[in-house]
Write a structure and sequence with these properties.
By secondary structure, the protein is of the alpha+beta class. The protein has two domains: about 15-80, no CATH class; about 105-220, Cytidine Deaminase, domain 2. The chain has eight helices and five strands, in the order H-H-H-H-H-H-E-E-H-E-H-E-E. The chain has helices at about 15-30, 35-45, 55-65, 65-70, 80-100, 105-120, 155-165, 185-200; strands at about 125-130, 135-145, 170-175, 205-210, 215-220. Strands 2-1-3-4-5 form a five-stranded mixed β-sheet, sandwiched between helices. Helix 2 crosses helix 3 (about 55-65), helix 5 runs antiparallel to helix 6 and helix 7 packs across helix 8. The longest helix has 20 residues, at about 80-100. It is elongated, with a radius of gyration of 24 Å. The relative contact order is 0.09.
Length: about 230
């Protein structure tokens, strides 16, 4: 009696493994050529090595609308930990680059970092970059968390922290969950108040950045950082 033939059952590899190998080869030869769903599929393949993840990649993009949203709003996603891990890796890589150069010469990296950490939030929050006399980063801190459209920041608390870390300057950053980075009157007044409070201690407000979903506003770039506002 002959042995049963299992060649078409247990020895047969899942069809998606060959597809995944070809996808890796394409990515290695031309990373920028892959469409979003294939790039996401490649990433998901490492999270789920024994699963065909192509349908999941397409489902996530359809649900969240874009690759950016998939990685920034993963709370209800089955891959939430993986997406958060990627974001945290990116955050650490960017902050490492920021630490090695004067921040005023690296505002593009500061903006990249802030869009990554704040651009997706549904509430307002303030970040402060405390700098030394050569504009190198001493400390970066999330200073305050607020509501959908408002957050309270107290200049005297900022002053106390700046003195504590021996800062010579700072860059103030906050987000607008609405997506529109246009400064409000209260944003302008807060900036001016900070300048007035920190000035006697020779601590400069070097910029105030407002982060929207896809854009930003810089008080320094617009040359309004030190303008006095009318009461």
């Amino acid at each position: 009696m002959g042995k049963p033939d299992h060649s078409n059952t247990s020895d047969k590899k899942p069809h998606y493994l060959g597809h995944r190998s070809r996808l890796k080869e394409r990515f290695q030869s031309a990373p920028g050529a892959l469409p979003d769903y294939e790039l996401l599929e490649l990433f998901l393949g490492w999270l789920y090595p024994r699963k065909d993840v192509k349908p999941l990649a397409k489902e996530l993009l359809e649900e969240y609308g874009s690759l950016w949203s998939v990685f920034h709003n993963p709370k209800n996603s089955p891959c939430a930990v993986g997406f958060l891990c990627v974001r945290e890796l990116c955050r650490r890589l960017i902050i490492k680059e920021i630490q090695g150069r004067p921040l005023l010469n690296s505002l593009s990296k500061v903006l990249e970092y802030c869009h990554l950490t704040m651009g997706h939030l549904t509430y307002e929050t303030f970040h402060l970059f405390f700098l030394d006399r050569k504009n190198f980063l001493i400390q970066e801190e999330s200073f305050q968390k607020g509501t959908l459209d408002e957050v309270a920041l107290y200049p005297r608390n900022v002053m106390a922290r700046a003195l504590e870390v021996n800062a010579a300057g700072l860059i103030l950053v906050h987000n607008h969950p609405s997506g529109d980075p246009t400064p409000s009157k209260s944003d302008v007044l807060l900036t001016q108040h900070l300048v007035e409070v920190l000035g006697p201690f020779k601590i400069q407000v070097l910029d105030h950045l407002i982060i929207g979903k896809y854009a930003h506003f810089s008080f320094r770039e617009q040359n309004i950082l030190f303008k006095k506002t009318n009461p």
